[in-house]
Amino acid sequence: MTYLPLPKVPARRVAFIGLGTMGSGMAARLVAAGHEVRGVDIDSARLAAFEEVGGLPAASVAEACDGAEIIMTILPRDTHVRQICLGAGGIADSAAPGTLVIEMSTISPEASLDIHDALTSKGLRVLDAPVGRTPKDAQNGALLIMAGGRAEDFADAAPVFAPLADKIVHLGPKGSGIRMKIANNYMSMVSMVLTAETLAMARKAGIDTDAAVEVLQNTTAGRGQINVNYPKKVLRGDISPDFPLAMGAKDISLGVGLGKSLGVPLFLGANAGELFNLAASQDIRDWDCTAMLVLIERLAGLPDRALAQDTDQNKDKESS
């Protein structure tokens, strides 16, 4: 296994619990960076592979936590994390007060907060710090870390974060990291459906899939609104219409109509069409399409964000 160059960081004693798809690469990176890493996993083959890259297999969570300065966990589900953190012989029972626990699993925010509070009541310090990207990125130290917790604990985690990620973001207090991860995953999975609907519609229309992919990779739609339009428009407070919501309503109607004529179910398209049509009742149909964010935020009970352009100016611009 090869690795990208590692940053030089102070060596720490680390307990790493969970040597699965993501954890195995992460733990190996920590070893390669010079940390003393004791690994725990129920799979003996994973422990053996970890030992081959210089890790120290531990027979139990208690053994791994003995003398550890930092404890890192990345496990499949809420129940696994609760058991490892709070069960008999787990982290709460085994770690010394003041130890930093970095919980990196993708679990429910409720479980994450419960575990955070239970561990801090035992005198431990805790960050929720789930990761984004792929197992290959874990091997190469190119993950994205989304951390929630105290700023001083986030700073203390720098030596173990640095070998793992090329993007490390402190999002705020406890629970911020896991909530951001879930929001990101929501966007990812909905985009999976959107992409599938689009490619299926193109294929049913007789378009070669490779050709469709080539087109989509070179349009704003394919590159992603979060990378192209949102940062330069509504997120800057500018809702002057480069492309108004009213025209978006027309386009989504045409798309859903094509899907219907071809017999392609467009579940997301139908719901999106309802939202675009709702813009008229909110008096924002002439605002830029990225003002869909304003509409969604209103439906969520949030106040309007600061906007650089008022509606009358936008209407004047659109009619000119």
From TrEMBL:
Source domain of life: Bacteria
InterPro entries xrefs: 3-OH-isobutyrate_DH-rel_CS, 6-PGluconate_DH-like_C_sf, 6PGD_dom2, 6PGDH_NADP-bd, HIBADH-like_NADP-bd, HIBADH-related, NAD(P)-bd_dom_sf
Domain spans labelled 3-hydroxyisobutyrate dehydrogenase-like NAD-binding: 175-295
Swiss-Prot/TrEMBL GO biological process terms: organic acid catabolic process
Keyword Disulfide bond part of the UniProt annotation: no
Active site: K181
Transmembrane segments: none
GO molecular function: NAD binding; NADP binding; oxidoreductase activity
Keyword Metal-binding part of the UniProt annotation: no
Keywords: NAD, Oxidoreductase
Extent of the signal sequence: none
Pfam family, one: NAD_binding_2
Residues in 6-phosphogluconate dehydrogenase NADP-binding domain copies: 13-172
Family per record: Belongs to the HIBADH-related family.
Name by which UniProt lists this protein: Probable oxidoreductase
Organism: Roseovarius nubinhibens (strain ATCC BAA-591 / DSM 15170 / ISM)
